[in-house]
Every structure is written in structure tokens, then in C-alpha cells.
Q: What sequence folds into this?
């Protein structure tokens, strides 16, 4: 949600992911790893998904791409280019109109030369030219295309994965922590490329735990906590604490180097021990009994919040 009245590249509403597991062989167990999650990306936008480790960021990426294991039950509405993203359509667009830069470099096929992997099924001269341009621009020397993944360093593999994502007719790029292990200059170049890609009328969902990076490159930020979006904010909202909506986002703001480095006590709850009602309740200075009830998502200015204490004027979607 935002005040933008622009074309939606991606819109996800009410996503929930539950893992069905067997504990001690017989007892069935349900792990609700994502609940009530909404997020959208408009054309021209980089939306950063920010959250600490285990908040559900990679699961979101995999849920969009239909890559979760079979014991995961996924519910929710997915629209891509303003049309439902059915399983069949997903298969057709994955790796093409929707590209993933995965969090792990292990996604490269160990048995295929990297140049061929980047080109995919495209055999044309144009594809070869484009792959070579991308490799050159990411400082991958001539000859890299003929290497196998085990011959590439971690940083090289990251740049190869980025090249793969920027090859095709991509409209939505989902980048899951794309830059760790890369030199600063290359990481900056990747972010510039994402900007250019978005400016050309496409969308980027940038998954990161690095809020400062997110504020530098994104247009909007979705804050994840314990498997849900607690707030969607414009980057400009981070100019002051008052403009932020959720106590967790405010706490993240206060923990930033320029804002006092104050760390909040406690930990994000593990999915097995989610509290009743607000997932942030046990750590929230504003907690009261009502926070244990249902917490609807509300629209506040050009963003959203899941907090009943946020007292600002509410505008319905
Ligand atoms: N296959 C699975 N079965 C059960 N639980 C899982 C599975 N995959 C992930 N989880 C759990 O779901 C939660 C979210 O995981 P996810 O990988 O999406 O986190 P993340 O936000 O991407 O973290 P990180 O920043 O460390 O990459 C974690 O608690 C994780 O343990
Ligand atoms: Ni992850």
C-alpha cells in the first residue's frame, strides 16, 4: 500500500505459510512461519523488505516463486502485473519475468558452466552478447563463462547470480541479501543497476537485514517481524521517529548509528512460541491487555501499520 496510484508489478495479500511437521515421528506439528502478510511493489519501485534473521524474508521470496517444500501450506492472494499468479503462470514466468537473486550461492548448478547458466535456454548471439556485457560490467574476466561454480569464489558467484537475474525479460526482481561477500564498489554497482532496472518501469523486492542499505536505495520499506509485515513506510518517513508508525520500527530507528544506538531488550519470538495478538507485544513499551486481541492492518498516511496504539488519522484503502 502507498499513495502511489501506479501499476502494480506485485501485490500480495494475506499471505500465510504453515509448515506441517512430525515431531517424534507421530505427533503432528504445525509451524505458522508467515501470517497475514501484505506487500506490494509498483512499477518504478524498489521495495525493501527489512527484518532480523528468521523473520520470514527468504520464505516470502520462495513463496512468491512457488519454491517452498511440499510440507508448506501456502495461502493468500498473489497478483503479478495485476493478474492472478496461478501455479501454472508461476512456472511460465519463473526465471524469466520474475527473477530471483537467491540468498545462497549454492543455487548455481554445480555441473554447468556458469556462462551457460546465465544464458539459460537462450541460444541467440544476442544472449551471448548480453551475458558478456554483464560479466564485464561486474568485473568478471573473460574466460569466467567457461568456469564451473566450484572454480568461482563466493564474491564471483554472487556477481554471476546477479548477471543471471538481469539477463532476461524480467519485470520483477527478487533479490535476497544480494551483496554480502561482494566488494563495496561492486555492491554499489549492483544497487545502481537495481535502480536503473526499476526506473525502466520494473519492480525490485530487495530483501535485506541492513536497514541503512535499504534507506539508501529503496523507495519504500516493509518491516518484517516474526513472519508478518508490521509496517510499510516511505523511506522519507525515516527522517524522524515521529513519522514512523510501529513501536518496532521506532525501536529500529533508535538503534541506528545516527540516532543513539539504543538496543531494545529481548528477542524476536520463534514461530513455535508466538504470543497472542501482537507479535511484538512482549517487547513493546506500550503493551496493554488489548494488544492480545486481533491486530488488523491499518492505513496511516502513505503506509500501513499493525498496531492498535498508533493513534493517527486512519485512511481506509
Ligand atoms: N523448511 C522449513 N521448515 C520449518 N521451518 C522453517 C523452514 N524454513 C524456514 N523455517 C523457519 O521459518 C522462519 C523464517 O525463515 P527465513 O529463512 O524466511 O528467515 P529470514 O528472515 O530470511 O532470515 P535470514 O535473515 O537469516 O536469512 C525461521 O524461524 C525458520 O527457522
Ligand atoms: Ni533469508
A:
Amino acid at each position: 500500500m502507498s499513495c502511489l496510484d501506479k501499476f502494480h508489478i506485485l501485490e500480495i495479500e494475506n499471505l500465510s505459510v504453515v509448515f506441517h511437521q512430525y515431531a517424534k515421528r507421530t505427533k503432528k506439528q504445525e509451524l505458522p512461519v508467515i501470517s497475514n502478510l501484505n506487500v506490494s511493489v509498483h512499477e518504478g519501485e524498489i521495495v525493501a523488505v527489512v527484518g532480523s534473521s528468521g523473520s520470514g524474508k527468504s520464505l516470502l521470496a520462495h513463496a512468491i516463486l512457488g519454491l517452498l517444500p511440499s510440507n508448506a501450506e501456502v495461502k493468500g492472494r498473489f497478483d503479478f502485473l495485476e493478474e492472478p499468479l496461478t501455479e501454472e503462470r508461476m512456472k511460465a514466468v519463473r526465471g524469466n519475468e520474475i527473477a530471483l537473486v537467491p540468498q545462497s550461492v549454492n543455487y548455481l548448478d554445480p555441473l554447468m558452466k556458469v556462462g551457460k547458466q546465465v544464458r539459460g535456454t537462450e541460444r541467440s548471439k544476442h544472449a551471448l552478447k548480453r551475458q558478456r556485457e554483464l560479466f564485464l560490467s561486474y568485473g568478471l574476466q573473460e574466460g569466467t563463462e567457461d568456469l564451473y561454480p566450484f572454480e568461482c569464489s563466493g564474491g564471483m558467484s554472487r556477481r554471476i547470480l546477479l548477471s543471471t537475474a538481469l539477463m532476461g525479460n524480467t519485470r520483477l526482481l527478487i533479490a535476497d541479501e544480494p551483496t554480502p561477500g561482494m566488494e563495496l564498489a561492486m555492491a554499489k554497482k549492483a544497487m545502481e543497476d537495481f535502480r536503473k532496472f526499476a526506473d525502466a518501469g520494473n519492480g525490485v523486492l530487495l530483501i535485506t537485514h541492513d536497514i541503512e542499505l535499504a534507506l539508501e536505495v529503496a523507495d519504500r520499506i516493509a518491516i518484517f517481524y516474526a513472519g508478518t509485515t508490521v509496517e510499510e513506510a516511505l523511506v522519507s518517513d525515516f527522517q524522524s521517529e515521529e513519522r514512523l508508525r510501529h513501536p518496532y520500527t521506532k525501536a529500529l530507528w533508535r538503534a541506528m548509528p545516527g540516532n543513539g544506538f539504543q538496543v531494545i531488550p529481548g528477542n524476536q519470538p520463534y514461530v513455535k512460541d508466538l504470543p497472542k495478538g501482537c507479535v511484538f507485544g512482549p517487547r513493546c513499551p506500550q503493551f496493554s491487555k488489548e494488544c492480545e486481541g486481533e491486530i488488523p492492518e491499518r492505513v496511516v498516511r502513505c503506509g500501513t501499520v499493525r498496531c492498535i496504539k498508533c493513534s493517527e488519522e486512519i485512511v481506509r484503502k
User: Anything to note?
Assistant: The chain has a mean pLDDT of 90. The longest strand covers residues 8-23.
